[in-house]
Specification:
Number of domains: 1
Protein name: Lipoprotein
Shape: globular
Distance between the termini: 63 Å
Order of helices and strands: HHEEHHEEH
Radius of gyration: 20 Å
Strand order of the largest sheet: 1-2-3-4
CATH class: Alpha Beta
Number of strands: 4
Strand content: 15-25%
CATH topology: GMP Synthetase, Chain A, domain 3
Largest sheet: 4 strands, mixed
Organism: Flavobacterium bizetiae
Keywords: Signal
């Protein structure tokens, strides 16, 4: 009887462990939900709004950083310098989790002008994350 109780306990413990382990797609969904719920408190120079959108079938998250900047060459140059630094800071603060990138989730990050045109785009994936962190 005691042996049977131990077996049942072990099976239940295994089920709990397996259920608590999330796969990358579940983490992607959770990240997007959490990111968007805290987006109102996000602070960065010129950023007026930030949002995340998940693409489960593509293992991709799109991060949009809307700004009050005008679309011109001067602002593109400034954005090319400041945006990678912002993303690096977010990775270091775990606002963009390395864990997700290592699990194959790609982040497409867009720094947008006030008219929603792209000033700069950065792709964060397994191949590019180390280069971005060295900038």
């Amino acid at each position: 009887m005691m042996k049977r109780i131990i077996q049942i306990s072990c099976v239940l413990a295994l089920v709990v462990v397996l259920v608590s382990c999330k796969n990358a797609k579940q983490k992607l969904q959770e990240y997007v939900k959490t990111y968007n719920s805290t987006a109102a408190t996000f602070k960065a120079d010129n950023v007026t709004l930030t949002t995340a959108r998940g693409y489960i079938n593509d293992d991709k998250i799109e991060l949009r950083f809307e700004t009050d900047l005008e679309q011109n060459e001067s602002n593109k140059i400034k954005a090319n310098q400041s945006f990678p630094k912002l993303l690096k800071e977010m990775i270091n603060k775990n606002e963009i989790p390395k864990e997700l990138v290592e699990e194959g989730i790609q982040f497409d990050a867009y720094f947008l002008a006030g008219d929603n045109t792209v000033l700069v785009k950065e792709i964060i994936n397994k191949e590019s994350i180390n280069e971005l962190l060295q900038k």
